[in-house]
Design goal:
Blueprint (H helix, E strand, L loop, with lengths): L7 H15 L3 H13 L6 E3 L15 H19 L3 H14 L2 H13 L8 H11 L6 H11 L7 H15 L1 H4 L1 E7 L6 E7 L9 H4 L19
Helix pairs in contact: 3-4, 4-5, 5-6, 6-7, 6-8
């Protein structure tokens, strides 16, 4: 007799239950995050972030959409660093769907901890944190996801990979048209993540008129304590 495959809904439920019982508690997570940040006090991070377009993009994004994406990213980051998670949430959601990695990481953290009145959701936390950590992301995000991933039971990894694949296909750089890269200022170890719309190049000449940022907006990690990113 062949084994019956669990339904997708049941599989996700199993992931949620397993994560809830096997991943560190909020207090333990906070301790881990605090320890991680404390170990990196000799480094500063200036980080840029990443709309929803499923599948292959087939049209150019207009300047208004580009500006809105940058504004959402910046407002989300501003409120997040002040720990005003309820106000940060809608901006982070919009910019995370746009493809900005820092917004994705912060949104995943909000779902992981259940901050700002948002219900704790491990599937969404795994989805957003995994896509945030995929390809050319900031070391802080990569390390946080790697640490969280190591706590997931091995038997649930296939489901986690499925969640990751779905989020990358919907909100990764290829789907959203937002590309990120990492660089370090000459003679320093300060890491910078720069995320920009691929279509922005179409508006480079009139950029000053449009007000499109260049886009070195300061998103230095703030808030202190145990808040990452």
């Amino acid at each position: 007799m062949t084994a019956t495959q669990p339904s997708p809904r049941l599989s996700l439920l199993l992931v949620v239950l397993a994560l809830s019982f096997n991943v560190a508690s909020p207090a333990q997570d906070d301790a881990i995050a605090e320890e991680t940040i404390a170990a990196r006090t000799d480094r500063e991070y200036q980080i840029e972030e990443e709309l929803i377009v499923q599948g292959t993009r087939d049209r150019l994004k207009g300047p208004r959409q580009i500006l809105r994406g940058y504004d959402s990213r910046n407002m989300g980051g501003y409120y997040y660093k002040l720990r005003m998670y309820e106000k940060a949430y809608p901006y982070l959601l919009e910019s995370a769907q746009e493809g900005f990695k820092m917004s994705q990481a912060r949104l995943g953290y909000i779902y992981q901890k259940g901050l700002g009145g948002v219900e704790r959701d491990w599937v969404k936390a795994v989805g957003w944190l995994s896509v945030a950590a995929s390809r050319h992301s900031h070391p802080e995000i990569m390390n946080y996801w790697k640490d969280l991933r190591s706590k997931i039971p091995e038997q649930n990894m296939p489901m986690v990979e499925d969640i990751t694949e779905e989020y990358v296909s919907r909100y990764g750089s290829k789907a959203t048209g937002v590309t990120c890269d990492i660089n370090r200022a000459a003679g320093t170890h300060i890491a910078h993540m720069r995320c920009v719309y691929d279509d922005e190049i179409e508006y480079r000449d009139p950029a000053d008129t449009l007000g499109i940022p260049g886009v070195e907006i300061d998103t230095t990690v703030g808030g202190g304590g145990t808040v990452p990113f």
